[in-house]
User: Fold this.
Amino acid sequence: MEKTLILTAYAYWEIAFIYAFTVYFDRPDLATLFPTPVISPQILEDAVVNDAHGLLGDLMRAFLSNAMNRKKPLLPENSDRLLFSYIGSKLQVDDFDLGYNPLANHGSFEGLTPELKVSEARMNSQPKPNTISLSIA
Assistant:
């Protein structure tokens, strides 16, 4: 029997947010940012629905490397520890809306449900307040 995952409207909003974020920041004038994998909304949705670990993990590591302002990108072998620590520090200052650290229950990013992976990726992609200013002419 094949596993079917039905996404919530909120999950689709998070997918749209992640896609918009990657498209907006895929610019040559932002060369200091670590690049994200090339995706489309359909590819991202398929990765969530089919629980494809590779793409969501790659996105999370790129977002977290940028959020932590690292000189080198995160490697898969040390990303869970750093993600756990990063989420913990964000929870202490109420920067994440989950209210708990899901890695405490699941042990690793790969152990999370697909919807939690999307939530984590979206939260790690959000810029800190007052760090990016956009001007509309």
